[in-house]
Queue: 3 jobs
Job 1
Amino acid sequence: MISEGEIYGQIGEDGFARLVAEFYAQVPTDDILGPMYPPDDLEGAEDRLRDFLVGRFGGPQRYIESRGHPRLRMRHMPFKLDQRARDRWVQLMDRALDHAALPEESTVLLRQFFHHMSTFLMNSPG
Ligand code: HEM
């Protein structure tokens, strides 16, 4: 079994880029998440999530260099993240993981991370 820090070594830039592209391809038409994301800067949002994940899982620290400390709970405060939004985000990311068809070990670790992190980010009871 690999550790979280070895995921970048296993899937590389390309793996993260494909995963995040599969996720954002679903966002614009999603009835809950679509309205939350900036329609004129979806590419920027895609870059930010990709760079964050790359840095978090053993790759270059581009996210911290350009955005500073992630402080993800604070950065998500402008959005209403209730159980419904959390579950939808996870659903889209689970589907993205299926489509990206990354190596099994990386897929298991990433899926766990997304499930935990999205629960941690919830900031509204409904
Ligand atoms: C729980 C459901 C979630 C919702 C509804 C949500 C929604 C959003 C929205 C609307 C943005 C602003 C888009 C932008 O960057 O311009 C954003 C940013 C971001 N989200 Fe989430 N998010 C969720 C969960 C997560 C999770 C689990 C992660 C961690 C993998 C994450 C990581 C990020 C990052 C890194 C940014 C960019 C922050 C920045 O630098 O400004 N989000 N999210």
Job 2
Amino acid sequence: MKISVIGLGKLGTPLAVVLASKGHDVVGVDVNPDFVRLLASGKSPVEEPGIQKLIDENRGRISATADLEAAVLKTEVTFVIVPTPSDHQGGFSNKYVLSAVTAIGQALRKKRDYHVVNVTSTVMPGSTGGEIRRALETASGREVGATCGLCYNPEFVALGSVMRDMLYPDMILVGESDARAGGVLEEIYKTVCEKNPPVKRMNWMNAEITKISVNTYVTTRISYANMLSDICERLPGADVDVVTAALGADSRIGKKYLKGALGYGGPCFPRDNVAFSHLARTLGARPDLAEATDRLNRYQIERLAAAASRLLEGGSKVGILGLSYKPETAVIEESQGVALAARLSESRREVYVHDPMALSAAMAVLGDKVVPMRSAEECVKAVDVLVITTAWPQYAEIPAQVFARPQARLQILDCWRILSRERLAGVADLHFLGAAAPEPAGRQIRAVQSS
Ligand SMILES: NC(=O)c1ccc[n+]([C@@H]2O[C@H](COP(=O)([O-])OP(=O)(O)OC[C@H]3O[C@@H](n4cnc5c(N)ncnc54)[C@H](O)[C@@H]3O)[C@@H](O)[C@H]2O)c1
């Protein structure tokens, strides 16, 4: 199929590349000329594992242009994946979607063929059937459901595994104007997805509610696990990992997203509960659960900063390993590592930071408040207290002797429990968030909590 993708950002470029890898002819469009130039020359404008290889293998089926009209005219389906930033009330603004859809509609006036417009950007319930539909019909002079289709088809992907998540999704969600439009998307996804996932087809409103519900349900679990972790830390003998492993064995609960650790971050999760509670309030429904999830998430940085500060005991040097909001990405939005670095530097600590991918993005925000370190090993060696805030696999591989000190032992706060107590026994004092350290290996997390 011939497909145009409007917006070549963190989601749009991977989608364009995955579609091309499955035999579709794809033209990408962006208002950012650098992104267009890069993709047109066979280079990925965004970082994502596996993306450059897939571009190299499918160069003949991927093109890029700043000319949205030309892209729409030579394709049958257009995916819209532009930003939908949070507005001042907590909902999402559709301004970029409306601008793109209006331009698509104007282009559609110049062709006769049936065309499907597919909004992939996350939008608030009521948007697709409301202002997006109006913008498309007004600009195109066409009736949605007759000579063009309009779908809402959000992706459920995580940065760092976007390509894999697109190829192996749990389900495909399609909000459709009519059966023909939804059928076009279902056919595309049959060619894209590896394991024949269920395609949930429904009206726009249900799809919009489903998208925001998936994210807020997952974050509710994360906040639940973090609340449990906070409780476990305060009860001698308790270990959140032991508790959640048993909880997750109950088939009504399940294991995923039940690890008590740090607050959730990134460009999607934190804003979704805010939008969900805004939606509930606007409708006169109770927003309590979404608000509590968000409140608990904001509290996690207080908890982390307090635990790190207690270990610091005045004036000593602290290292932070992990600045991206999760492994395998350079994105630092709402990252706990960056937030912790900012807080500790404000309290006049010497803060040393490292991240395999996100160092330059983080330094642009943190400036000269912190010292960037070229390697994790250098960071470990420079400090008295080390906090592991992102579970990068390479941090688990740091040799035990790197942590060793001739005098006062290195204090490590391992928020994701990636280091092995056995390996570091007698070398450093390892503290886990959510659990007491075993006797007699150094100070316990109880001491961190209660000093
Ligand atoms: N990144 C994620 O993990 C993720 C996951 C699920 C949903 N989403 C949703 O997908 C949407 C896009 O997110 P993203 O992370 O890819 O954003 P992004 O900011 O990385 O990329 C958006 C791109 O759209 C371009 N753009 C803006 N207006 C345009 C226009 N009129 N024409 C052409 N290009 C235009 C921008 O220049 C930018 O390159 C958002 O609604 C987001 O909520 C993102």
Job 3
Amino acid sequence: MSANGPDMAADFTIEQDWQGYREEDHAVWRLLFERQQKLLIGRACDEYLDGLGALGVAAGGIPDFRRLSDVLEHTTGWRIVAVPGLVPDAVFFAHLSRRRFPSTCFIRRRDQLDYLQEPDVFHDICGHLPLLMNPVFADYMQAYGEGGLKAQGLGHLRRLARLYWYTVEFGLIATPAGLRIYGSGILSSAGESVYCLDDPRPLRLGFDLRRVMRTRYRIDRFQESYFVIDDFAQLFAATRPDFTPIYREIAALPDIEPDTMLGCDCRCAVAAEGKKMGRSKSAAQV
Ligand SMILES: [Fe+2]
């Protein structure tokens, strides 16, 4: 340990120091985990719940990253790397492109159960890790890292960041049983897990790559728009093309506010209405 905290490598990685967690840290994890498990049955997508179970992430306490990494690596080739907090974009993308997921180690305090501006270990592990057990989503995350490095060079990071926000962090997925959550920002939030599916106010729109990249977002409140994918294969296929001409195309178009619906948007029904989820177009032209 250095005077400034854990010894940090050039790629911003540190040791998790699992032995250093206090009983209070594990108790906060248990509170968060048990609360989310009650909420997420019937709300989280099956891929998430399957991944959570297969990883063995449970209420017992903050997991040891090495144990989780061994399971994850065996399944999809990913590993967790511990980091002290948010890392520079280039470092984050480089880790993802090498199938290494950067996770913070600290856990929020008991008086911060409902809101924390920065990701903590509960968000990173319980929110992000289970879907990295899914082979298609695991490939999507690696491709995102490669795309991030490229977008930085092209000066379009702002637009690519919106893709991460509206998929990895706040994505919804259509299933025959109704809309389900796959975004980690929702999965680790008790309030937004309910709001995103039950509240009539937010827009729930069919995923469209260009639309997503043009849509601003707010980090200090529940989302005003969610984008709904049909499945992870659709997401991966939609984001596979070279983004260079797409960035050029949308750079000429205005950004879209998160509470705005366009005439070309497809609105998704929350309740199941058959396999196609009852999408309907808005009559409003903006
Ligand atoms: Fe996150």
